[in-house]
Structures are given as structure tokens and as C-alpha cells.
Amino acid sequence: MAVPKKKISKSRRGERRSHDALKSATYVEDQETGEFHRPHHVDMKTGFYKGRKVIQVKEKI
């Protein structure tokens, strides 16, 4: 069974875990409508992606 010879310090442990933090989601502003949406995702309000209509949006009643 593997057993460490020395204790891992808090700073070394923190260095290893530095990439585990959650990042906030990024949003970009649509140039035509001014709405914010995720980059490289379909805008669900308009159905457009890269200036092309790719899905039909259901209208609210």
C-alpha cells in the first residue's frame, strides 16, 4: 500500500486544486437585438445562430 513519506502542505494542496474552481458563465451581446446569450449557442428567443435561423421558436400564448 502506498503511503506518503511527508505531509502535503496546504499551499501545495491549493496549487493542485487551483483549477477546480467554478467559473462564471460568459455571455455575449447579440449585435442585432442587443440580447445577451451564451457564445456558440443558439439564441433561444430568436432561434438564430451565426446570423442564420436554425430553429423555429414557439410563440407564447
Please give the structural blueprint.
Blueprint: H1 10-16, E1 28-29, E2 36-37, E3 48-49, E4 52-53
Antiparallel strand pairs: 1-2, 3-4
Protein architecture, described:
With 61 residues, this protein is of the alpha+beta class. The chain has a domain at 23-61. The protein has one helix at residues 10-16, and strands at residues 28-29, 36-37, 48-49, 52-53. Strand 1 (28-29) and strand 2 form a beta hairpin. The protein is rod-shaped and about 65 Å long. The model has no long low-confidence stretch (mean pLDDT 88).
With strands numbered from the N-terminus, the spatial order across the biggest sheet is 1-2
Which blocks of ≥5 consecutive residues have pLDDT under 50?
A: none
Structural class: alpha+beta
- Residues in helices, as a percent range: 10-25%
Whole-number mean pLDDT: 88
What integer value in Å does the Rg equal? 22 Å
Shape: rod-shaped
